[in-house]
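Deviation from plan, reported transparently: nicotinamide-adenine-dinucleotide complex.
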Amino acid sequence: MAAAAAISICSNGSTVNGSNHVVVSRSTLVSRRIVLPFRQISTLALRGGSGSYGQSRVLVKATTATPSTNTTTTGTGSNASSSRGLEVKPTILVAEKLGEAGLDLLRSFANVDCSYNLSQEELCTKISLCDAIIVRSGTKVTRDVFESSGGRLHVVGRAGVGIDNVDLAAATEYGCLVVNAPTANTIAAAEHGIALLSAMARNVAQADASLKAGKWLRNKYVGVSLVGKTLSVMGFGKVGSEVARRAKGLGMHVIAHDPYASADRARAIGVDLVSFDEALTTADFISLHMPLTSSTSKILNDETFSRMKKGVRIVNVARGGVIDEDALVRALDSGVVAQAALDVFTVEPPSADNKLVLHENVIVTPHLGASTIEAQEGVAIEIAEAVVGALKGELAATAVNAPMVPAKVLSELAPFVTLAEKLGRLAVQLVAGGGGVKSVKVTYASARASDDLDTRIIRAMITKGLIEPVSDSFVNLVNADFSAKQRGMRISEERILLDGSPENPLEYIQVHIEHVESKFGSAISDAGEITVEGKVKDGIPHLTKIGSFDVDVSLEGSLILCRQVDQPGMIGTVGSTLGKHNVNVNFMSVGRIAPRKHAVMAIGVDEEPCNAALKNIGEIPAIEEFVYLKL
Ligand SMILES: NC(=O)c1ccc[n+]([C@@H]2O[C@H](COP(=O)([O-])OP(=O)(O)OC[C@H]3O[C@@H](n4cnc5c(N)ncnc54)[C@H](O)[C@@H]3O)[C@@H](O)[C@H]2O)c1
Ligand SMILES: O=C(O)[C@H](O)COP(=O)(O)O
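Because the crystal trials were delayed, the predicted structure below was used instead.
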């Protein structure tokens, strides 16, 4: 089928635009063209279109959790009595102690339920009344918690760095955003690492306990010096590099192992990045600063201890699970490891008979790395800002399970986000039977180079559009890829590099659904796929192609697509048929192969046509097929 020219019709006059292209615009339409504000776009991205908790628009049913023992629920107004009528404040459960400045910030926006020391069962009960939860390392946010939330939980805020206590896979499946506070406790953790390193080397804790027990054992507690010794920093991230900087100041020779760190950054503070083997075998002291993941779990074990220098000393302020604790006990008993200083444990709190806690060559603290007044205030503010921002629908800079896209890029992509979802919705409604979509190709045409165009949000919103109209699922930026995968839907992407100025991020987007039948045969392109194409014009998403027919209709309201034999009077006939049923036409566009041949008419309507109206359209003799699509 040849590509067709387009005729667009509106109600206040017509303009001939090229031989086969008529554009008619209606003045009211122009005034209704509102570019979605940033918040609304990111709201769609994060909250599945259900609304945000901004000052102007709250569409979720939040309720205040009933206060329980050890609980305070505070906020500046109750949900039911909100003077803004339908607007409801979200409820944020703070499950572990948080700094006052952070709580104040939360209270200015939400009902805040501070309930500490909840059992797992109590947490699961309470969570169904909460839109967000804030935890530290002591609360396990498990799959059960997400299941129990009944879809209400939208944000998990981790007031700290490590997110190993949050089931990220489950959070993602449930479309729940996880944010953390990655920077505010870095210095506190590094200082604690140095405190443990020095205290261990000079037996401070043991000597203190001994003196308090009435002994004066100057010969027993002879220590070792730090100056000139080799310190291996394992994990050269934020905390590791600050530990390295401080250890350099103590006159230590510092090396580091981190598969992902930049050698330049290490060199800048006088640290050599070395292999795992070198870090392990040449160290007098080892300080651990990597996250607990499946690849770092028990990274220090019988085998790795056996390769260390005899008499090595170990500091762990990362996570207990990076050490095989039984193996460490064996290494201490055999003298391979002379001493250890531990802030973290595999199980916290450790049992009363934990062999490491009781070992005379081990000093311990109860996970105090982040526990300074300054760090806790900083963390509280950092996480409160992230959680409130996420509930408002903004994309958090510290999102752990969603693509992080800079605000500038996001605002530029904003109109394309709306276009993407609408194209997905249109395309799937054209599939005969709706479901069964397994293979989708998205084409991005742009004058920008590939690495200058981040399509993750666009792809997520197309996915949302493809899935939501034909299922009960709610899809957002967090769970879009997961939702597609779960349905066996493969979404491939291709780029067309256009000549010209890369001012606009995208010229057009095409969505092709492969290997399906269509309920509207004209939507099948020459390549045998359902194809829809859209552009953004003046900030408004437009449908510009259906199958092989060029059209031009703004994607507002809903759409009727008709295939007809091109002939005079068709636009008027369809328009008056809809008018008879009180359906307001906001835009019409006709794409045709050539005059008097087949044409596709795209009609934008404000109201949903009743069955009788659709039946009457089908009865117009020149109409060969038609379909009504909700946008
Ligand atoms: N004890 C405490 O209270 C406390 C306080 C803050 C942070 N922490 C823990 O310390 C850890 C580090 O925190 P951060 O803020 O520096 O995080 P970070 O993400 O800035 O740094 C972690 C570094 O570990 C590296 N890494 C990952 N896998 C590795 C591997 N197999 N070998 C070596 N390096 C590896 C990463 O590349 C990264 O550079 C976190 O797990 C966090 O939970 C504990
Ligand atoms: O990962 C972290 O940030 C630290 O381990 C601090 O944990 P906490 O918030 O439980 O003190």
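The radius of gyration is 31 Å. We consider this an acceptable substitute for the interim report.
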